[in-house]
Amino acid sequence: MKAIKQLFDNNRSWAQSIKTSDPDFFEKLANQQSPEYLWIGCSDSRVPANQIIGLLPGEVFVHRNVANMVVHTDFNCLSVLQYAVDVLKVKYVLVVGHYGCGGVRAAFENGDNGLIDNWLRNVKDVQFRYQSELAALDDDDARVDRLCELNVVSQVANVCHTTIVQNAWARGQKLSVHGWCYSLRDGLLRDLECAVFGPDQISDAYRIG
């Protein structure tokens, strides 16, 4: 229980430090949340959304799962996306993967990992789609890192294909979707330059109306 008690001690120290720097912080936070950003990232404990982009609680809405997936049958993710877009009116959806992702590597290595392999089939779909590009790389570490990037690009597309995002664009809501990859080695984000700003950037097959 000592480890659990330490968390409460840490919490009290953190809350006190926040109140010291901004006495009204928690009062303002309790009244409303109005973030401009939705972060869809990996569950990996080494990739904390707020700290990476230097934002405080209340400034970024967060959804995390193994390998930062946006799956069209995942109503958890879609519910978060809808709330962020329709209620909070976020302006930016950030799909953020990270190099050396354990989920992506597990999918790449074809191991037997139990139940999670069903989830990782979504990463396998990306691997299959880009198998020629991945095979041309020098080693498996490079292939996994590239697969991490390609997975982000694919999930950006999946976000844009949802009725949630397309309906937002149809009603003129300002919304863009971005794909980034984070490096655990230096703490820096890399923009994968796959941003989407409107329906004209997606295939006709996925457009509504």
Record the SSE blueprint.
Layout: H1 2-21, H2 25-31, E1 37-42, H3 49-52, E2 60-65, H4 75-87, E3 92-98, H5 102-109, H6 116-129, H7 131-135, H8 140-161, H9 163-170, E4 176-182, E5 189-191
Parallel strand pairs: 1-2, 1-3, 3-4
Antiparallel strand pairs: 4-5
Describe this structure in words.
This protein is of the alpha/beta class and 209 residues long. The chain has helices at residues 2-21, 25-31, 49-52, 75-87, 102-109, 116-129, 131-135, 140-161, 163-170; strands spanning 37-42, 60-65, 92-98, 176-182, 189-191. α5 crosses α6 (116-129). The model has no long low-confidence stretch (mean pLDDT 95).
- Mean pLDDT over the residues: 95
Envelope shape: globular
Rg, please?
19 Å
Low-confidence stretches: none
Class inferred from helices and paired strands: alpha/beta
Give me some keywords for this one.
209 residues, 9 helices, alpha/beta, globular
Write a brief structural summary:
By secondary structure, this protein is α/β, with parallel strands linked by helices. It has helices at 2-21, 25-31, 49-52, 75-87, 102-109, 116-129, 131-135, 140-161, 163-170, and strands spanning 37-42, 60-65, 92-98, 176-182, 189-191. Strands 2-1-3-4-5 form a five-stranded mixed β-sheet.
